TrEMBL record:
InterPro entries: Arsenate-R_ArsH, Flavoprotein-like_sf, FMN_Rdtase-like_dom. PANTHER family: ARSENIC RESISTANCE PROTEIN ARSH (AFU_ORTHOLOGUE AFUA_5G15030). Its cofactor is FMN. Residues 37-182 form the NADPH-dependent FMN reductase-like domain. Keywords: Flavoprotein, FMN, NADP, Nucleotide-binding, Oxidoreductase. Residues 1-34 are annotated as: Disordered. This is NADPH-dependent FMN reductase ArsH.
Length: 255
């Protein structure tokens, strides 16, 4: 398995639980009992002390607190795109299976030379828009984050937003950019209390809400004319609600 084991999964020393309800989507339609939102987390560095991985781990702990099920993909043996014929590699298969499993995702990349890293882009490049008629990213929610070694920047999160749109994902409004990330973590790899940590809490809380809100409607929201036409699947006008509503309006206007 290429999913990382999350250390101290339920320990949140920087979180003030008085202000962080365990189920932030309960007040939303369809926010009641149901399976936990399934969230895949990707990070963009293979360093032993990878700050993008540490951020993702903090996000995963918060996701657990907010009632979601997180899984972190380990890209350490992921080949480059087109390096393996037919993408026939166990790491590629597992990444795609996790993407299909997910209802939402978190992408966190270091900013390197003003952009996302090659490790981050490689993971996204291994997620095609379609696999055998199934779409591993379309309709999923997405939260974007970045870490920087210097002053705060938004180059990486802006690129991740562009990629999320290209992958037909619903990228949430909030985002996180952590400046001088090396100062924000203690010797155990845990994030210190700060406004940067609070922003990660905000992002994760918002991601859970959007995922719960959208997931019952993903099929309708991603239904496209061009794809129906290409598949030779015309709409049954007797069952289509929009066609029925329009027909009723037309009849009413003719009275």
């Amino acid at each position: 398995m290429r999913t990382r084991t999350l250390p101290d999964p339920d320990t949140l020393p920087a979180l003030d639980r008085r202000y962080a309800p365990g189920h932030p989507a309960l007040d939303l339609p369809n926010g009641g009992p149901g399976h936990p939102p399934r969230i895949l987390l990707l990070y963009g560095s293979l360093r032993e002390r990878s700050y993008s991985r540490l951020v993702v781990e903090e996000a995963a702990r918060l996701l657990r607190h907010f009632g979601a099920e997180p899984r972190i993909f380990d890209p350490s043996d992921l080949p480059l795109p087109d390096q393996v014929k037919g993408d026939d590699h166990p790491a590629v298969r597992e990444l795609r299976e996790l993407a299909m499993w997910s209802e939402g995702q978190v992408w966190c990349s270091p900013e390197r030379h003003g952009q996302i890293t090659g490790v981050m882009k490689t993971q996204i490049d291994h997620l095609p828009l379609s696999i055998g008629g199934l779409r591993p990213t379309q309709g999923r929610t997405l939260a974007v984050m970045q870490v920087s070694g210097g002053s705060q920047s938004f180059n990486a999160v802006n690129t991740l937003r562009l990629l999320g749109r290209w992958m037909r994902m619903f990228t949430i409004p909030n985002q996180s950019s952590i400046a001088k990330a090396f100062q924000e973590f203690d010797e155990n790899g845990r994030m210190r209390p700060s406004s940067y940590y609070e922003r990660i809490v905000d992002v994760v809380e918002e991601l859970v809400r959007f995922t719960v809100l959208l997931r019952p409607h993903v099929r309708t929201l991603t239904d496209r004319y061009s794809e129906r036409k290409a598949a030779g699947a015309p709409i049954d006008m007797a069952k289509d609600l929009s066609a029925i509503a329009i027909a009723r309006q037309t009849k009413g206007a003719g009275r």
